[in-house]
Protein backbone atom coordinates (compact mmCIF):
# COMPACT_ATOMS: atom_id res chain seq x y z
CA UNK A 1 0.00 0.00 0.00
CA UNK A 2 1.07 3.56 -0.68
CA UNK A 3 1.21 6.09 2.15
CA UNK A 4 -1.56 7.98 0.34
CA UNK A 5 -3.73 4.84 0.35
CA UNK A 6 -3.19 4.38 4.08
CA UNK A 7 -4.09 8.03 4.67
CA UNK A 8 -7.28 7.66 2.65
CA UNK A 9 -8.33 4.59 4.64
CA UNK A 10 -7.86 6.47 7.90
CA UNK A 11 -9.84 9.48 6.70
CA UNK A 12 -12.83 7.59 5.25
CA UNK A 13 -15.35 6.20 7.73
CA UNK A 14 -15.52 2.41 7.42
CA UNK A 15 -19.31 2.29 7.76
CA UNK A 16 -20.63 5.44 6.09
CA UNK A 17 -17.94 5.58 3.41
CA UNK A 18 -17.68 9.35 3.86
CA UNK A 19 -14.46 11.34 4.47
CA UNK A 20 -14.07 13.21 7.74
CA UNK A 21 -12.13 16.00 5.98
CA UNK A 22 -13.36 18.23 3.17
CA UNK A 23 -11.59 19.92 0.27
CA UNK A 24 -8.98 21.04 -0.33
CA UNK A 25 -7.47 19.63 2.87
CA UNK A 26 -7.72 15.94 2.09
CA UNK A 27 -6.63 16.28 -1.53
CA UNK A 28 -3.59 18.35 -0.54
CA UNK A 29 -2.65 15.87 2.17
CA UNK A 30 -2.87 13.01 -0.34
CA UNK A 31 -0.60 14.97 -2.69
CA UNK A 32 1.84 15.46 0.17
CA UNK A 33 1.77 11.72 0.80
CA UNK A 34 2.73 11.09 -2.83
CA UNK A 35 5.62 13.56 -2.55
CA UNK A 36 6.78 11.80 0.59
CA UNK A 37 6.58 8.40 -1.11
CA UNK A 38 8.63 9.63 -4.08
CA UNK A 39 11.15 11.17 -1.72
CA UNK A 40 11.53 7.95 0.25
CA UNK A 41 12.07 6.12 -3.05
CA UNK A 42 14.90 8.50 -3.91
CA UNK A 43 13.04 9.99 -6.88
CA UNK A 44 12.64 13.59 -5.71
CA UNK A 45 14.43 15.63 -3.11
CA UNK A 46 14.95 19.05 -1.62
CA UNK A 47 17.90 20.74 -3.35
CA UNK A 48 20.99 21.58 -1.36
CA UNK A 49 23.33 24.53 -1.79
CA UNK A 50 25.16 24.73 -5.11
CA UNK A 51 22.80 22.46 -7.06
CA UNK A 52 21.14 23.08 -10.42
CA UNK A 53 18.12 24.68 -8.73
CA UNK A 54 17.80 26.98 -5.74
CA UNK A 55 18.32 25.55 -2.27
CA UNK A 56 15.21 23.89 -0.79
CA UNK A 57 13.47 23.81 -4.19
CA UNK A 58 12.17 20.61 -5.75
CA UNK A 59 14.82 18.56 -7.55
CA UNK A 60 14.34 15.25 -9.37
CA UNK A 61 17.08 12.74 -8.53
CA UNK A 62 15.85 9.81 -10.60
CA UNK A 63 13.37 9.95 -13.48
CA UNK A 64 13.15 6.19 -14.02
CA UNK A 65 9.67 4.74 -13.39
CA UNK A 66 8.81 3.23 -10.03
CA UNK A 67 6.57 0.60 -11.61
CA UNK A 68 3.51 2.10 -9.93
CA UNK A 69 1.37 3.92 -12.51
CA UNK A 70 -0.09 6.41 -10.05
CA UNK A 71 3.35 7.41 -8.74
CA UNK A 72 4.91 7.47 -12.19
CA UNK A 73 2.29 9.90 -13.52
CA UNK A 74 3.09 12.30 -10.69
CA UNK A 75 6.83 11.79 -11.08
CA UNK A 76 6.58 12.75 -14.76
CA UNK A 77 4.63 15.85 -13.74
CA UNK A 78 7.33 16.82 -11.24
CA UNK A 79 10.09 16.41 -13.81
CA UNK A 80 8.50 19.32 -15.67
CA UNK A 81 8.35 21.42 -12.49
CA UNK A 82 11.85 20.96 -11.15
CA UNK A 83 12.99 24.07 -9.31
CA UNK A 84 9.52 24.88 -7.97
CA UNK A 85 8.78 25.47 -4.32
CA UNK A 86 7.27 22.27 -2.86
CA UNK A 87 4.11 24.14 -1.80
CA UNK A 88 3.55 25.23 -5.40
CA UNK A 89 3.29 21.68 -6.76
CA UNK A 90 0.79 20.36 -4.22
CA UNK A 91 -2.27 21.51 -6.18
CA UNK A 92 -0.96 20.01 -9.44
CA UNK A 93 -0.09 16.67 -7.83
CA UNK A 94 -3.54 16.51 -6.21
CA UNK A 95 -5.45 16.66 -9.51
CA UNK A 96 -7.59 13.51 -9.96
CA UNK A 97 -5.50 11.81 -7.28
CA UNK A 98 -8.26 10.90 -4.86
CA UNK A 99 -10.51 9.19 -7.47
CA UNK A 100 -7.53 7.12 -8.63
CA UNK A 101 -6.73 6.05 -5.09
CA UNK A 102 -10.35 5.17 -4.33
CA UNK A 103 -10.63 3.07 -7.48
CA UNK A 104 -7.36 1.28 -6.64
CA UNK A 105 -8.61 0.41 -3.18
CA UNK A 106 -11.89 -0.76 -4.67
CA UNK A 107 -10.03 -2.97 -7.17
CA UNK A 108 -8.01 -4.45 -4.30
CA UNK A 109 -11.20 -5.32 -2.43
CA UNK A 110 -10.39 -2.95 0.42
CA UNK A 111 -13.22 -0.47 -0.22
CA UNK A 112 -16.62 -0.90 -1.85
CA UNK A 113 -18.04 1.62 -4.33
CA UNK A 114 -21.58 2.19 -3.02
CA UNK A 115 -23.40 4.26 -5.64
CA UNK A 116 -26.60 6.12 -4.82
CA UNK A 117 -28.37 9.47 -5.14
CA UNK A 118 -28.83 12.43 -2.83
CA UNK A 119 -32.46 13.57 -2.61
CA UNK A 120 -33.14 10.99 -5.27
CA UNK A 121 -31.55 13.25 -7.88
CA UNK A 122 -27.82 13.78 -7.51
CA UNK A 123 -25.49 10.78 -8.00
CA UNK A 124 -23.04 10.12 -5.19
CA UNK A 125 -20.60 7.34 -4.39
CA UNK A 126 -19.74 6.29 -0.85
CA UNK A 127 -16.71 4.14 -0.08
CA UNK A 128 -17.36 1.90 2.96
CA UNK A 129 -14.79 -0.68 4.00
CA UNK A 130 -14.90 -4.14 2.51
CA UNK A 131 -11.71 -5.54 4.06
CA UNK A 132 -10.39 -3.49 7.00
CA UNK A 133 -7.53 -5.82 7.94
CA UNK A 134 -4.77 -3.61 6.53
CA UNK A 135 -6.30 -0.48 8.03
CA UNK A 136 -6.35 -2.16 11.44
CA UNK A 137 -2.61 -2.80 11.14
CA UNK A 138 -2.01 0.84 10.25
CA UNK A 139 -4.12 1.98 13.19
CA UNK A 140 -2.19 -0.31 15.53
CA UNK A 141 1.07 1.33 14.43
CA UNK A 142 -0.45 4.80 14.93
CA UNK A 143 -1.68 3.98 18.41
CA UNK A 144 1.65 2.44 19.39
CA UNK A 145 3.36 5.73 18.59
CA UNK A 146 0.68 8.13 19.78
CA UNK A 147 -0.69 6.39 22.88
CA UNK A 148 2.19 4.20 24.04
CA UNK A 149 5.04 6.54 23.13
CA UNK A 150 6.84 4.06 20.88
CA UNK A 151 9.18 5.33 18.16
CA UNK A 152 7.29 5.22 14.83
CA UNK A 153 8.86 4.04 11.59
CA UNK A 154 9.14 6.62 8.81
CA UNK A 155 5.87 5.68 7.10
CA UNK A 156 3.90 5.85 10.34
CA UNK A 157 5.55 9.14 11.25
CA UNK A 158 4.63 10.51 7.83
CA UNK A 159 0.99 9.56 8.37
CA UNK A 160 0.98 11.17 11.81
CA UNK A 161 2.53 14.35 10.42
CA UNK A 162 -0.09 14.56 7.67
CA UNK A 163 -2.95 13.86 10.08
CA UNK A 164 -1.54 16.53 12.38
CA UNK A 165 -1.42 18.99 9.46
CA UNK A 166 -5.11 18.27 8.86
CA UNK A 167 -5.85 18.61 12.59
CA UNK A 168 -7.74 15.30 12.68
CA UNK A 169 -5.60 13.11 14.94
CA UNK A 170 -8.30 12.90 17.69
CA UNK A 171 -10.89 12.02 15.03
CA UNK A 172 -8.76 9.11 13.79
CA UNK A 173 -7.63 7.81 17.19
CA UNK A 174 -11.04 8.08 18.78
CA UNK A 175 -10.62 6.04 21.96
CA UNK A 176 -7.88 8.18 23.55
CA UNK A 177 -8.90 9.56 26.95
CA UNK A 178 -6.65 12.63 26.86
CA UNK A 179 -7.19 14.35 23.50
CA UNK A 180 -4.77 17.18 24.34
CA UNK A 181 -1.99 14.72 25.13
CA UNK A 182 -2.72 12.91 21.89
CA UNK A 183 -2.39 16.13 19.90
CA UNK A 184 0.81 17.07 21.74
CA UNK A 185 2.36 13.71 20.93
CA UNK A 186 1.36 14.04 17.26
CA UNK A 187 2.89 17.53 17.14
CA UNK A 188 6.06 16.23 18.78
CA UNK A 189 6.42 13.49 16.15
CA UNK A 190 5.54 15.83 13.27
CA UNK A 191 8.20 18.35 14.33
CA UNK A 192 10.93 15.88 15.26
CA UNK A 193 13.86 14.89 13.05
CA UNK A 194 12.13 11.66 12.01
CA UNK A 195 12.96 11.85 8.31
CA UNK A 196 15.00 13.55 5.62
CA UNK A 197 14.59 17.28 5.11
CA UNK A 198 12.74 16.76 1.82
CA UNK A 199 10.13 14.61 3.57
CA UNK A 200 9.55 17.22 6.25
CA UNK A 201 9.29 19.86 3.54
CA UNK A 202 6.58 17.83 1.83
CA UNK A 203 4.52 18.00 5.03
CA UNK A 204 5.28 21.72 5.33
CA UNK A 205 4.15 22.15 1.71
CA UNK A 206 0.76 20.67 2.60
CA UNK A 207 0.40 23.07 5.51
CA UNK A 208 1.43 26.04 3.34
CA UNK A 209 -0.99 25.06 0.57
CA UNK A 210 -3.82 24.69 3.09
CA UNK A 211 -3.05 28.10 4.60
CA UNK A 212 -3.02 29.71 1.15
CA UNK A 213 -6.35 28.08 0.29
CA UNK A 214 -7.93 29.30 3.53
CA UNK A 215 -6.64 32.84 2.97
CA UNK A 216 -7.93 32.82 -0.62
CA UNK A 217 -11.34 31.53 0.50
CA UNK A 218 -11.58 34.16 3.24
CA UNK A 219 -10.62 36.92 0.81
CA UNK A 220 -13.20 35.72 -1.72
CA UNK A 221 -15.87 35.62 0.96
CA UNK A 222 -15.03 39.13 2.12
CA UNK A 223 -15.08 40.39 -1.48
CA UNK A 224 -18.41 38.74 -2.17
CA UNK A 225 -19.97 40.18 0.95
CA UNK A 226 -18.90 43.77 0.26
UniProtKB/TrEMBL annotation:
It is found in: Golgi apparatus membrane. It comes from the Bacteria. InterPro entries: GPP34-like, GPP34-like_sf. Its main location: Golgi. It is a peripheral membrane protein. Keywords: Golgi apparatus, Lipid-binding, Membrane. PANTHER family: GOLGI PHOSPHOPROTEIN 3 HOMOLOG SAURON, TRANS-GOLGI PROTEIN GMX33. This is GPP34 family phosphoprotein. The lineage of its organism: Bacteria, Bacillati, Actinomycetota, Actinomycetes, Propionibacteriales.
